[in-house]
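Re: beginner question about structure tokens

> Can someone show what the tokenized structure looks like for a real chain? I only ever see the sequence side.

Sure, here's an example I had lying around. Input first:
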Amino acid sequence: MFPLETISAKMLDYYVDRKDSLIIDLRDEKEYAEGHVKGAVNIPYGKFDEYKKLPENKVLVLYCDRGGASLMLARQLAKKGYMTRSVIGGFRAYRGRNLVISS
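And the corresponding structure tokens:
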């Protein structure tokens, strides 16, 4: 079992464009469309169980709106053997250079 790690929103930039990590946005589709972290895939928290195939060889970096849902899910995934990171404060705390805002 891998330990769950929490990271600051600022640390999200460290994982962008890395081949050994997958950034997952747990917010709903509308929120994701309005803005997200570059390269993040949108898997809404309520639909996460529908996704059966997650890469086992990558660090899963999870964020939600404020950090609660990503922390719970990261904990569950870590118990299943995944390497996980949860963003403290979620998307609301992110102010990095890899912010994608739709026009």
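Each token stands for a local structural state, so reading them left to right follows the chain. The chain has a mean pLDDT of 94.
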